[in-house]
Amino acid sequence: MTPQKILLIILDGASDRPVDGATPLQSAKKSNLDALAKNGICGIMDTISPGVPPGSATAHLAIFGYDPYKYYTGRGPFEAAGVGLEVRKGDVAFRCNFATARDGKIVDRRAGRIRDTKELEKAVNEGVDLGIEFQFRAGTAHRGALLLRAPGLSSDVTPTDPNKEGVPAGRTKATSKKGEKTARIMNDFTAQVAKVLDKHPINKKRASEGKSPANILLLRGAGVVPHIPPFEEKYGLRSAAVAAAGLIIGIARICRMNFIPTEGATGGLDSNLDNKIKNASDALDKYDFVMLNIKGADEAGHDGDFKAKTEFIGKIDDALGRLPRREDILTVVTADHSTPVSVKNHSGDPVPLIISGNGVRVDGVEKYDEINCARGGLNRLRGMDLMPILMDLLGKGKKFGE
Amino acid sequence: MTPQKILLIILDGASDRPVDGATPLQSAKKSNLDALAKNGICGIMDTISPGVPPGSATAHLAIFGYDPYKYYTGRGPFEAAGVGLEVRKGDVAFRCNFATARDGKIVDRRAGRIRDTKELEKAVNEGVDLGIEFQFRAGTAHRGALLLRAPGLSSDVTPTDPNKEGVPAGRTKATSKKGEKTARIMNDFTAQVAKVLDKHPINKKRASEGKSPANILLLRGAGVVPHIPPFEEKYGLRSAAVAAAGLIIGIARICRMNFIPTEGATGGLDSNLDNKIKNASDALDKYDFVMLNIKGADEAGHDGDFKAKTEFIGKIDDALGRLPRREDILTVVTADHSTPVSVKNHSGDPVPLIISGNGVRVDGVEKYDEINCARGGLNRLRGMDLMPILMDLLGKGKKFGE
Known about the structure:
2 domains, 8-stranded mixed sheet, Alkaline Phosphatase, subunit A, homodimer, alpha/beta, 15 helices, globular, 13 strands
């Protein structure tokens, strides 16, 4: 039978470079991933283009078939969608950090890694008046997002987050005439927020306990919310996303995928993978396209921890063993980018890719890793190529010409 | 360690098609090239795009990451830079040939392959007055380059070189309204040069010796000098070029690479390869990016000489054995284009490529040739992809998105 549905598994940052002759994927126990490779067609994929290190947002957009050079306008809009703000075309959105300032200087960019900021969120939304519509939403730990809604806003502004400590708490400046209104509002927001937070009981309590007070909010990643055509409109597939990281949830939401929260999913090495896989698997009953993002390997890559990365891939593989086998599903495994432990950051190396399911040209590749997949039948693709290939395997390819 | 520097070795025209089942690269003794392949990641590369036979200039531009469709405006500017003229944006430059005309017809397009033309160069520069700034510079043998500098110049002109003998010595015509001023100047130049050369003692002597006098200059390859961002500005790498062919030197100079001349380098089969390799290797102490172009195999390809090409590749391989092994270097081997002996000209076949050095995904390819590299881990790239990949391996990739 022709596959009807797609399960797209993105092993965030799992792709790597060899260390002493082998990558974490090559070193991990991964019989389930290898079985998928063996029964599928494999290849390597530059999610953006050869040699360009992708950010997670640009990579996911490209994999979903949205040209990132058109739709990626900065990280703010995706973070804002990720924390649940209803972003609209033309809004300007920012990533935020609660931070600690003393005598006008930033002394802790994460406010002592403060955990619960819901009360502070409320105080900001109630105590600040900008004369325009705005919404601030706290995220996990010290993080959050800010949305400004008014005519004439722009992302032509510098971040108020200087991205280091020991320097004055930032003011923003417009980088063009267009950005002046937005810059004024941001500076106003920053000043009012400082007053609201400074006197807040939570911060008085933190100070008395010797903890860093969350007394300022730093803004960065300014972006004008783009118009992104909904995934279902674009492909005719009812779609859902299972993910833990705010940014990934934001991308899914901005594409109007249905976000399915997972209990115990953290986006880290301690994430509950069984729950995520069960959620993704169950979602296939209701949806035609399910994206499952598993983040931990990326974290281990950023930490430069080869062992943790390898073991986590083993855990993923183990959990994948519990995926039911279904004739009607096209299972796709890939990564959004490489995060080599030797680099501790995203690199421009291509990622390995499997497409497994009825109809694919099984190619003799027997292992899911960077080296073996490079010998696969898909050869070397770009991220933007993936969705057309998958749609075609569903029998929904768009014919060009009669 | 992360590689810090790049040695890019371009085996000009070495790539070929099989003759009786093997290409010159497959037939040559090349243990050093094969060792690089074995320790590196391999692939094939369309320097322009599949099936398009590249010129040397367009191929080199693409390999250096300059879009040739944007920066290649004709061969003149590169030849002019190659003979050492200081080209500036907006100049119009030409390739020139000293030739012999009799009774208004061209009888020898190379003026008896005249060797030393420095005196004639001087006579032309001193004896011609165009009313605008110009510079003529002799190159090797009968070759040279002409630069015109004035407002309103254009390359919309026909060449004065008819590219055959027995026909009238060419006059130029504008191919558009824009080209009219330039055409007038070229015709004026041609006429004045003929007067200056005709009476020159060198030509009187040549005629008395029965040699073809160099009594006219033919112009072709008109091009407006483009603004090419300096390589160092583009990549942050201090760069140097070791090459012998004027055109390649011109490309390097126009990209503001530091040209390092090599004693005994000829661009032919008799070139002193040991000196070139030593120069390139020494340059790596001072520069971050060293381009080494070795031209001879291209010449053998144009001559259709399989044996000479194969033997010359063996010589290159032998000389490469003297490259020191350095942990901090990324060594790249490729060709700018194929020059199949069966074609005697450039073809559109992709060229084999090795990237060898720390961090690359070694792929199991053990031989540097057109067939084995096609099975490599890089798969099939384009020339413009190479620099982003190399920059990423140096840890200097430009991330797209946060």
